[in-house]
Amino acid sequence: MKIREGKGFSQRKVSIDILHQSNCSKFEQNKVDISYKKFVQLLERVHIELEEFEFISNNYSYPPKKWITLNFFAMKLIDVEKLKKIIRISDIFLEEHEDELILDIRHLAEAFICIQENNDFDAAKKLALRVWKRLKEYDTWHLNELQLINCLLYLFDIETATFITKFALKQLQKYSQHPLYQKIKIPFNYNLTLLFIQENKLQEANLLNEKLITEFKELAAYNLMTCCYARKHFLSNQLNQPIEINYLQKAYSICDALDNDVLKQKIINEMEYFSTLDFKK
Question: Exposed, middle or buried, 39 (CB in 10 Å: 0-12/13-18/19+)?
Answer without folding.
Answer: middle
